[in-house]
Amino acid sequence: MRVKSLHIVFSALAILALTSSLALARGGMGGGQGGCPGMGGGWGQLSPEKQAAFQKLHDAFAAKTAQLRADLGVKMAELNALSVAATPDQAKIDAVTKQIGDLQAKLLSERTQFRIQVSKEVGPGVAGGGCPGMGGGMGGYHGGGCQ
């Protein structure tokens, strides 16, 4: 009898623990109507004309910065290779690090110009930078931070 009672008590506690953990679950990336800019939240509130205007600006920005982003990826891979070499050359690492910083500065400048242009032509907050912790893209080079 005592073993059966303990079994029932522990089973009830296990079920309680499993079901109560659902209360701690966080919402998905969603966004929907509202939400963080850059996560689809404001997109549904734009007219089809504004969506087309944004898409045209975004496509132009992507084309304009494609080589810059590719160069940045190459330099990041080069830095990784230099860093894990059997005998890392600090001078080369410093030089590549500076080149990466220069490329990131150029990309940030282009991104800032893009966001200003989108704000003027489509509306403020449409080209937002993503949500905190999401990074917005590989390596975190494509935004970050709700506005």
CATH class of the domain at 46-117: Mainly Alpha
CATH architecture of the domain at 46-117: Up-down Bundle
How many strands? 0
Fraction of residues in H or I helices: 55-70%
Layout: helices, strands, pairs:
Elements lengths: L1 H19 L27 H36 L6 H32 L26
Helix pairs in contact: 2-3
Explain what you see.
- The protein is mainly α.
- It is flat.
- It has a domain at 46-117: Four Helix Bundle (Hemerythrin (Met), subunit A) (Up-down Bundle).
- It is built from three helices and no strands.
- Keywords: Signal.
Main features:
147 residues; mainly alpha; Four Helix Bundle (Hemerythrin (Met), subunit A); 3 helices; flat; disordered C terminus
Short description:
With 147 residues, the protein is an all-alpha fold. The chain has helices spanning 2-20, 48-83, 90-121.
